[in-house]
Amino acid sequence: MTSTTAASSGKRERTVTAPNGTETGPQLYVRAEVRARKGKQPAWLLAAVVVLAIACGASLAVGARAIPLETVWDALAHFDPADGNHAVVHARIPRTVLGLLAGGALGLAGAAMQGVARNPLADPGIMGVNAGAALAVVGGIYLFGITGLTGYIWFAFLGAAVAATVVYLLASTGRDGATPVKLALAGAALNAGLYSLMNVVLVSSQDTLDRFRFWQVGSVAGRDWSVILPGLPFLAAGALLVLCSGRVLNTLALGDDLARGLGQRVGLSRGIVALGVVLLCGSATALAGPIAFLGLVIPHAVRFFTGPDYRWILPFSLALAPALLLGADVVGRVALPPGEVPAGIMTAIIGAPVFVWLVRRGKGASL
C-alpha cells in the first residue's frame, strides 16, 4: 500500500509501505510511479515495436545496393531466385535476424544487470562479462586453434560465466556483502584486468590477432544461418529467465533486507537472473562480438516511458535495443562507401552522446 506525506518544500511525495506496516521511505516509489503511468505503457510498447519494424525494413532495404520497400515486401512474400533484388534481400535476412537477436539479448541483459546489482552503471561491458567472454574466445583461438564462430560460443559462455561469478564473489567479501558500489568496483577492476590479459595474448601472437580483430569490433555482417542457429536455444532460455524476473527485480530494487522481509530468497533470485544474463551475454558476444552501450543506454532511455517497473523495462529493452543496433548497422553501411563501419563502432558513436544526454537530464540514472 502507499501513503502520502508532506515534504519540507511544501510538495507532497509518495512513499511505499511494506505489508507489515513499516514505511520504507520515498526511494521505494515503484508502485506509486506505476499507478501514475498505468495505461500508457501498452501504447508506448506498441510504438517501440513499430520502431523496431521500421529498423528491420531499413536493414533489408539499405546497403551498397538500395532496394525499394515494395520490392523488399515482394521478395519476402513471393521470392523469385532469378530476381537479383530478391536475392539481395534474402542475403540480408540473416544479418537482420542476428541484429534482432544480439540487440535484444544485450538490452535484456543490461536491464537485468542493473536490477540485480541495483546500480545504474551496471552493463555487460562495464561489469566484466563481455571482457570475460572475449578473453575466453582469445584463449580458444590461441590454445585450440578455434576458427569458426560456432566454436566461439562455448568459450564465450565459459568466459562470461566465470567473469560474472568472480565479480559477485569479489563484491560479496566483507561485512555488507555484494553492495551496488562493490559490484561496480569489482566489475570495473576485473574488466580492466581481463582486457590486459587479452592484449598480452594478442600482441604475442600475430595469427591470433588476425583472427580475433574482425570479431572484436562487434558486427552483424558476414554471419549466416550456420552461425545463428546454434545460439538460438541459449538465447531463448536466457530471454525466458530474464523476462519472467520482472517482479523479482522490482523486489530486489527495494533492498536486500526488505526483499527478505517480503519473502524473497535473495541469493537464489540473483543466481537465476544472473544465469539468464550469462546465457544472453555469452550468446550475443559469441555471435556478434562485444558490442558496447546497448545494455547501458537502452534501459536508462526506456525508464522515461516505463518508470522503475521492471515488468515493463524488460520488454521495452527487448524491443528498442535491437532497433538501435539495426539502426547503427544501417548507418554504418552508408557512412563510408564503398566500405562499412561495423555496428559495434557505430553503437559506441551513437550511444556515448545519448548516454551523456540522459545523465545530464538527471532522470535516466535513477533505479
Description:
The chain starts with a strand and ends in a 6-residue tail after the last helix. The protein is mainly alpha-helical and 367 residues long. 70% of the residues lie in helices and 3% in strands. It has helices at residues 30-37, 41-61, 69-77, 84-117, 129-144, 149-172, 180-204, 206-216, 225-228, 232-243, 246-252, 256-261, 266-288, 294-306, 310-335, 343-361, and strands spanning 2-6, 12-16. The chain has one domain (29-361): ABC transporter involved in vitamin B12 uptake, BtuC, CATH 1.10.3470.10. Helix 2 runs parallel beside helix 15 and helix 3 (69-77) packs across helix 4. It has a two-stranded antiparallel sheet. Mean pLDDT is 81; it is low at 1-30. It is globular, with a radius of gyration of 22 Å.
Notable characteristics:
mainly alpha, ABC transporter involved in vitamin B12 uptake, BtuC, two-stranded antiparallel sheet, 3% strand, ABC_BtuC-like, Iron complex transport system permease protein
